[in-house]
Amino acid sequence: MGVPSREFSVPAAAKTDVCEYAIKIVEKKFIQVQNRGNRVITERLMLAKMDHPKIVRLYFAFQDLWSLYFGLEPVLGGDLATQIERMGTCSWEFTRFYTAEIIDILSYLRQCRVAHRDLKPENLLLTSEGHLKLVDFDAAMQVPEPDEGEGDAAAGRPCGGEFPPAESFVGTALYVAPEVLLGTAKPQQAFGLDVWALGCIVYLMTVGRTPFHAESEYLVFQRVQTLDYACPPRVWKKARQFIEGLLQLAPQQRLGVCQEGVADLAAA
């Protein structure tokens, strides 16, 4: 499933039927050492309410003395990161197809008022038919309505469990938005984190590397905060305009973050 260290998946089949599952195993010792209890709860709660063909399905969950177990839909086609790495610079058709698939996912999450907050090619698995499945919801949060106050919902803590606040550092360096690094992220603007990550993914597909790559994580962060990137001349005009619309320093100025939401992305 492409999960981090001390979390791993194994194939499994039920004895009473022909169903197959991917069992994600999370060691309790790892949860305690890394203080990841809330994130594990978040993933279970989020996956339990997701119902979309491009989001991995959670069938069951259980635990023993040593580990937690998630029975997930098996996705056997690898991940988008590996596919992009094999191709180097992706074709216009490839880029358009998978950008549209990600937008479809973000549209559903927007309807559910959920921000994934760790959108990256490694978390986008491929089915045997070549379609995407989004995984790893441990950093996700419920996004409050625009008119909600600064109470629990604004802090990203809906009923049913404590979700991490928008300003907490989650995600991956190459895809993290500047407001997270600056500590200015607002829960109501959490959709902007996924939109920023989409811009980085589209850039990766069209250029062959991420927009803010550097020799160290510190330098990556510096480039992100100053919007230090450029599209090579070979990048198609529509792709360049789309990327520029997504990679805006101010979350509210990013394409797809305003009231019209993901419809803007689909129309771009």
UniProtKB/TrEMBL annotation:
**Alphabetical keyword list:** ATP-binding, Kinase, Nucleotide-binding, Serine/threonine-protein kinase, Transferase
Where are the bilayer-spanning segments? none
Q: What is its EC number?
A: 2.7.11.1
Q: Which SMART domains match?
A: S_TKc
What does the record list as GO biological process? intracellular signal transduction
**What's a single GO MF annotation on this record?**
protein serine/threonine kinase activity
Q: Which residues form the Protein kinase domain?
A: 1-268
- Look up the domain of life of the source: Eukaryota
The record's section on InterPro entries has: Kinase-like_dom_sf, Prot_kinase_dom, Ser/Thr_kinase_AS, Ser_Thr_kinase_AGC
Top-level class of the enzyme under EC nomenclature? transferase
Reactions catalysed, as given in the entry: L-threonyl-[protein] + ATP = O-phospho-L-threonyl-[protein] + ADP + H(+); L-seryl-[protein] + ATP = O-phospho-L-seryl-[protein] + ADP + H(+)
In terms of PANTHER family, this protein maps to: 3-PHOSPHOINOSITIDE-DEPENDENT PROTEIN KINASE 1-RELATED, SERINE/THREONINE-PROTEIN KINASE
Output this protein's name.
non-specific serine/threonine protein kinase
Task: Give the species this sequence originates from.
Answer: Symbiodinium necroappetens
